[in-house]
Design brief:
CATH superfamily of the largest domain: FAD/NAD(P)-binding domain
Number of domains: 3
Oligomer: single chain
Strand content: 15-25%
Largest sheet: 7 strands, mixed
Radius of gyration: 24 Å
Number of helices: 14
CATH architecture of the largest domain: 3-Layer(bba) Sandwich
CATH class of the largest domain: Alpha Beta
């Protein structure tokens, strides 16, 4: 059978765009569809605009810190519409860049929601196209729990387009989106309540780093409402505040409620059942190590597969798929030692195993830590501290995890990720000359392992 395309991609986010472009450079006839804007969550309503908001919010702290260095700064004021509109203009620019990239690669863009009709047929709006191979890259979406008044809350999607900055905002959640927006709104001058079900933020990250971030958020003036469930949200009058009620009778007021309690894969309404594409127990598209689904000619990458939900991972998966299927260069995506960052204030970044993961999977460990006040703040007077951690497998001397909470953590960990991916040992770190004076030199000057009484896997067995 002659198909319209060798490959058709449903979803023009980072993973889908990369896969389509690479497949096209390998000579494939490629089509792609998107029902909103090209660029996906990261570019349109995620990491790019969010990082710009983080930059904007940090100026408040810079103005405060300047006094210790002799600067006299008049009381600053902030215009939210200016920041919002400038951020959205940058999103528009990037959207145009993505459109040019597709066009330059010869990929045909179909605007509209793609839906599988069978294993080789896709309906996009009123149009129907066929393809030999199909890639699903539809990403994910924020989820707001179904509680009374949930329709009054916003998600991170709407946070980029607020008409005005709220004087008070309650952010519900403890993951990276919640803590990043807590820092953004706090820096821009809003009173922030961070509402979380557990005792600390950022479950799943290294425990010591979690604690460091939690305490820093509290010190910054964010109200940490821990171990609280939200029962209902009530609006008082047309222009009045929101009341947040807990099941145990507690209540507090705010001017805006934002939920950041999780995301779900975009699998509904795209015809997966018609093509024999099955979901896993968590509701994501089930794939093998080659990103292939249960339908032999259909693959899936990115957040819709819920493996590691990071933009560079989706790009890696998409690139590997295209090279394997169209470039005669078979390779699997490598999900080991993927670095990541949380752009809270201060930043947290990591690569490799957490201490808790290492204890469950390895033998004896050596743990190295450093905690200090950054040089900048010896004059600024800010009480912010930096925390660093290296996890070393004792038997091999390999550094299996690196973690940091502090300014520029993401930039530093990106470099260390190369070393850890290459199998660097603690001896390699120890013989590397530091750049002085920097925070980064601490990673190569940690000489004394922490006294350790925690059990390893071997001891537990």
């Amino acid at each position: 059978m002659a198909y319209d395309y060798d490959l058709f991609v449903i979803g023009a986010g980072s993973g889908g765009v990369r896969a389509s472009r690479i497949a096209a450079t390998h000579g494939a006839r490629v089509g792609i569809c998107e029902d909103y804007r090209v660029g996906g969550t990261c570019v349109i309503r995620g990491c790019v605009p969010k990082k710009l908001l983080v930059y904007g919010s940090k100026f408040a702290h810079e103005f405060e810190d300047a006094a210790g260095y002799g600067w006299t700064v008049p009381a600053p004021t902030h215009a939210w519409p200016t920041l919002r509109d400038n951020v959205n203009a940058e999103v528009d620019r990037l959207n145009a860049v993505y459109l040019r990239l597709l066009d330059g690669a010869g990929v045909k863009l179909h605007m509209g929601r793609g839906r599988l009709m069978d294993r080789h047929t896709i309906q996009v709006g009123e149009q129907t196209v066929t393809a030999e191979k199909i890639l699903i890259a539809t990403g994910g979406h924020p989820v707001i729990p179904s509680i009374p008044g949930c329709e009054l809350a916003i998600s991170s999607n709407e946070a980029f387009h607020l008409t005005e900055l709220p004087k008070r905002i309650a952010i519900v959640g403890a993951g990276y989106i919640a803590v990043e927006f807590a820092g953004i709104f706090n820096g821009l001058g809003s009173h922030v309540d961070l509402v979380l079900r557990r005792d600390r933020v950022l479950r799943g990250f290294d425990e010591e780093c979690r604690t460091a971030v939690h305490e820093a958020l509290k010190e910054s003036g964010i109200k940490m409402r821990t171990e609280i469930e939200i029962g209902r949200i009530v609006k008082k009058g047309d222009n009045g505040p929101y009341e947040i009620h807990t099941p145990l009778g507690g209540m507090f007021e705010t001017d805006l409620v934002m939920y950041a309690t999780g995301r779900a894969p975009n699998t509904k309404g795209i015809g997966l059942e018609k093509a024999g594409v099955q979901l896993d127990k968590a509701g994501a598209i089930a794939v093998d190590e080659w990103s292939k689904t249960t339908a032999g000619n259909i693959w899936a990458v990115g957040d819709v597969t819920d493996r590691i939900n990071l933009t560079p991972v989706a790009i890696m998966e998409g690139h590997c798929f295209a090279d394997t299927e169209f470039g005669n260069k078979p390779r699997k995506p490598d999900h080991r030692s993927v670095p990541s960052a949380v752009f809270c204030q201060p930043e947290m970044a990591n690569v490799g195993l957490t201490e808790e993961e290492a204890r469950r999977t390895l033998g004896d460990l050596r743990i190295f830590t450093a905690a200090f006040r950054p040089m900048k703040h010896t004059l600024s007077g800010r009480q912010q501290r930096t925390f660093m951690k290296l996890i070393v497998e004792a038997a091999t001397d390999k550094v299996v995890g690196a973690h940091m909470v502090g300014d520029d953590a993401a930039e530093l960990i990106q470099g260390l990720a190369v070393a850890i991916k290459a199998g660097a040992t603690k001896a390699h770190f120890d013989t590397t000359v530091g750049i002085h004076p920097t925070a980064g030199e601490e990673f190569v000057t940690m000489r004394t392992a922490r006294a350790d009484t925690a059990p390893t896997r071997a001891a537990a067995e």
